[in-house]
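Recall that a protein's primary structure is simply its ordered list of amino acids. Everything else, from secondary elements to tertiary packing, is in principle encoded there. The following example makes that idea concrete.
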Amino acid sequence: MAYPTIPENMDRAAEAYATGKIVVVGGFHPGHSTNAVAALTAERVHANLFVNATDVDGVYTADPDKDGNARKLNRVTPPQLRKMFGEGQMKAGTYELLDLLAVNIIERSKIKTVILKCEPSAINKAIKGEPVGTLVVV
């Protein structure tokens, strides 16, 4: 189901997406986070789903490793994300879960976005439209 190689730039990502396969991208714009690059790519190709696979199973009210009262949110809006992550810097490697540039791109493009743990079963559920992780409601 996935494109066999990871595109090295936005044009290659668009070509890969045109094949109808699932496209995985990382960072190919120095100074931007992989989240921002992936959101830009999803916007460019008019993707119907942006899956942000990360090291946690969704967006929490606080860092679950530091706060025992943190609870996972099933749905969140871009304004809520900006409020949660707004104090972080907007440089690659300095954001918490999602940087503000990615949030802004998701909002302006109205891209259906799911933030989930990077596990094949979770990604498969998201692709099938099953509830998993945190849905960003735009």
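The longest helix spans residues 34-44. The chain has a mean pLDDT of 88.
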